[in-house]
What we know:
With 155 residues, this protein is of the alpha+beta class. The chain has one domain (4-146): CBS-domain, CATH 3.10.580.10. It is built from 7 helices and 6 strands, in the order αββαββααααββα. It has helices at residues 4-13, 33-43, 63-67, 79-83, 86-89, 103-112, 131-148, and strands at 18-20, 27-28, 47-51, 57-62, 115-119, 125-130. The chain has a 3-stranded antiparallel beta sheet. It has a 3-stranded mixed beta sheet with strand order 2-3-4. α2 (33-43) links the parallel β2 (27-28) and β3 (47-51). α1 crosses α7. It is elongated, with a radius of gyration of 19 Å. The model has no long low-confidence stretch (mean pLDDT 94). Ligand 2BA is lined by residues 19, 23-25, 43-48, 114-115, 128, 130-132. InterPro entries: CBS_CbpB, CBS_dom, CBS_dom_sf. Pfam families: CBS (PF00571).
Amino acid sequence: MISKAINAMLKEQEQHFLIPGEMVASVNEDNALAHAFLVLTKVRYSKIPVLDKDSKFKGLLSMPMITDTMLGLEQLSLAPLDELCVKDVMETDVQTIENPYDAELVMHLLVDLPFIPVVASTGEFTGIVTRREFMKALNHISHNLDNEYDIQPKA
Ligand code: 2BA
């Protein structure tokens, strides 16, 4: 169990650590790998969400998932970029969370994951909680805890 005071302050910060879906770079599951290759190169994020045409969350895509398909025995082939689409190579076994989040779960997950997709019970993609935004919230709490709570060391 995390401290009640920290849990309550995290709840107050909750909206600050969600990056809303419209601000998140994503690709469609039906996009050709050539298009996804360009998107990942341009946005410079190492892994981004994959959505369907109804904005439902489907998985995650990274550059190595694309470049793996280009590896031949002796040389690289560009053909798979036009022949395959995102859903052929994306990762689908992805840990997601629902809003409102369980702060303790989020904290545990962000130890190993740089971000967690937030997905509604209907499957719609809501946004992402990133390690960076969460660290900013923790930074805020560590500077303001004493202003809001009177925490004494145990005798
Ligand atoms: P990475 O792409 O590996 O990025 C690791 C960290 O590097 C990011 O941490 C951020 O601090 C910085 N960074 C990388 N590319 C950036 C860029 N184009 N603009 C600004 N900062 C950049 P976080 O912000 O905690 O993000 C964690 C992960 O969440 C990222 O890992 C990326 O996979 C994903 N992500 C974050 N924001 C995103 C967005 N707007 N769209 C899509 N994916 C995003």
